[in-house]
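OP here, attaching both records as promised.
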Amino acid sequence: MDELKDEVILIRIKSQKKKDWKNLCSKKQISLTSLIVNSVENRMMDDERRKVLAFIEKQDNIFGKIETNINQVAKIANGQKFISENELRNFSDKLSEIVILKKEQNEIFTKIYAQLSR
């Protein structure tokens, strides 16, 4: 639940600095208040948070496509009732790589979620 914001802080800065900050906010699509508060509290900016969430969604889609390809290879192997030793080894190597990448991704996501929750 949002707390009632009932305090105001007045700060003096040069006119050009204010314009620069407002331009930055406009580019990032965030408010000046958000820029200042998140900077002072060393929190992730709202635009960075949006980029991170988009990245996570993209990564999830990539692994979804890989899983689909794995299922297609399995169907082909089952349909032909044969897969060469070389193809099977190559497929197993790729599966091992995916397991490693997925583990790394999950570790990164854990760190990202920790940052997002601050």
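Record two, same layout:
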Amino acid sequence: MQIETLKQPTETQLDQLMTLWLAGNLAAHPFVKADYWRKQVSAVRQALPTANLIVASDDNQFIGFLGLQGHTIAGIFVADQAQQHGVGTALLNAAKAQRPKLQLSVYIANRSAVAFYHHSGFQVQSQSIDKATNQPDYLMRWHR
């Protein structure tokens, strides 16, 4: 597995990232209507090239990525077959190496993600309701 920062993704690379993004959101958020994620595809595809993208690849195929906007992790997405193999941890460690502090929002109902972030040193700072999905979420922060 290779971890690197992806600058100026190609259309083919964006296709791979979007496949990971959509599959990851559908799998991790069964409590959010699938249609919500499908309606976000165009906006996310446009936003991805503006983010700091840290990608994990194996045999020249992306198996995961993390999107950073400043100190905010917009999301971590790992291919189904690559989960539980350290990919998410490797992506998060790469982000921690680039930033002295990080924050993210995570749906409370996504218990495995909340546990992953707690295990990775993130602490809950506040709780709110995501207006787009009406789901409760945590704002979590980490710092060196």
